[in-house]
Design a protein that fits this description.
By secondary structure, this protein is an alpha/beta fold. It is 34% helix and 19% strand. The protein has one domain: NAD(P)-binding Rossmann-like Domain (Rossmann fold), CATH 3.40.50. An eight-stranded mixed β-sheet has the order 3-4-2-1-5-6-10-15, with helices on both faces. It has a three-stranded antiparallel β-sheet with strand order 8-7-9, with no helix packed on it. Strand 5, helix 3 and strand 6 form a beta-alpha-beta unit. The protein is globular, with a radius of gyration of 20 Å. The protein starts with a strand and ends in a 5-residue tail after the last helix. The mean pLDDT is 94. The structure holds uridine-diphosphate-N-acetylglucosamine. The site of uridine-diphosphate-N-acetylglucosamine (UD1) has 24 residues, from strand 11, helix 6 and strand 12. It holds the Pfam family Epimerase. InterPro entries: Epimerase_deHydtase (IPR001509), NAD(P)-bd_dom_sf (IPR036291), SDR_fam (IPR002347).
């Protein structure tokens, strides 16, 4: 039996990961800071029977204690989302990067060499696109003048022509476009340096847009599925930004938990650092998500507002092949079923 420490194990995704590990027969310990950005209710004493230790990863002594007897660390703890404003910046870097650095140093001291890192598709920035004349291109951030005029599709940086969005694979160059994204890239780089120096194994799971039961309610840190779901619960129509044609890959949280379970097992045989898209492989537009949720919740139909957020990218569509080939991970929850369940599932308070 493997003893796994799950950081952030009382959060939305962490809770599902702990449950999947427990159900598969692993011994699990949970460390969670109960950060107010993710937890409005007090932390539970246990998650799926695993004890919850209230630990801020910046606390070196507490982290060292929590690692006693641990074989594998599954590092989910992070501040996520776009945040409120730049006053959030030190806290993002503190939680996500200093916290990871303290964890890595303590793991090295304790001789623990296996790590699964919760990363994110935000490390890519815009996804991959092709221009008919220039081949694969990485568009620059969209200009305010274009967004304000309703020109939402990024264009070729060389010739200004329309682009075709393609599948974004793990070797796509990283291009973080927000503070959160920058802290996730730093986590990837810190863990890669740690793996080289310790000879350890790190599997970085780049989650695409995760949704499902237990998602936090609408906050400045929430993803779009929680925002739409919260609006519908309050009897309001989901507000779809841009023209609703922006594409994402929505992956159910139970599938994300299964990917973590597969990754924990794979840390026993793989060495070095490796990234994986964790996605359904079936992209959808934000307009489709909104319409599906509104229908399933029997709520008002979505409103397409034409608003935009400067930090947003247009399309990110995952190439899901590597996780299938190397971890044996395939998402099983289809979007129609997932949406139907999610429309009535409880959110976190
Ligand atoms: C989201 C998460 C990010 C996470 C990533 C992968 C946030 C803010 N973003 O990135 O942390 O790493 O998934 O799991 O948590 N939109 C609307 N109406 C709204 C809100 C958003 O139409 O009320 C649109 C946005 O303009 C955007 C799309 O929905 O086009 C997705 O937004 P969001 O879920 O916030 O961000 P992602 O970039 O997909």
């Amino acid at each position: 039996m493997t003893h796994v420490l799950v950081t952030g194990g009382a959060g939305f995704i962490g809770t599902h990961v702990v449950t999947a590990l427990h159900d598969a027969g692993h011994q699990v310990t949970v460390a969670d800071a109960g950060h107010p950005g993710a937890h409005r209710a007090p932390l539970p004493d246990t998650v799926a029977g695993a004890p919850v230790h209230r630990i801020d990863l910046r606390d070196r002594a507490a982290v060292a204690d929590a690692l006693a007897g641990i074989d594998v660390v599954v590092h989910q703890a992070a501040m996520v989302g776009l945040g409120v404003d730049l006053d959030d910046l030190p806290e993002y870097v503190g939680c996500n990067d200093l916290g990871t650095a303290v964890l890595l140093a303590a793991m090295a001291r304790a001789g623990i060499h296996r790590l699964v890192l919760a990363s994110s598709m935000v490390v890519y920035g815009e996804g991959t696109y092709t221009c008919a004349r220039h081949g694969t291109v990485r568009p620059a951030p969209r200009a305010v003048t274009d967004l304000a005029a309703g020109r939402f599709e990024p264009v070729c940086t060389a010739c200004g022509a329309a682009l075709r969005p393609g599948l974004t694979g793990e070797d796509t160059p990283l291009d973080p476009r927000s503070v959160y994204a920058a802290t996730k890239v730093a986590q990837e780089h810190l863990t890669a340096a740690w793996a080289r120096q310790t000879g350890g194994t790190v599997l970085a799971l780049r989650y695409h847009n995760v949704y499902g039961p237990g998602m936090p309610r609408d906050t400045p840190y929430s993803g779009v599925a929680a925002i739409f779901r919260s609006a519908l619960e309050a009897g309001r129509a989901p507000r779809v930004f841009e023209d609703g044609g922006q594409r994402r890959d929505f992956v159910h949280v139970r599938d994300v938990a299964a990917a973590n379970l597969a990754a924990v097992t794979a840390t026993g045989t793989r060495t070095g650092w490796r990234a994986y898209n964790i996605a359904s492989g079936r992209p959808a537009t934000i307009g489709q998500l909104a319409a599906g949720l509104a229908r399933a919740a029997d709520g008002p139909p979505p409103v397409i507002t034409g608003e935009y957020r400067l930090g947003d990218v247009r399309h990110v569509v995952a190439a899901p092949g590597r996780a299938a080939a190397e971890l044996g991970f395939l998402a099983t929850v289809g979007l129609a079923d997932g949406i139907a369940q999610f429309a009535g599932a409880p959110l976190r308070g």
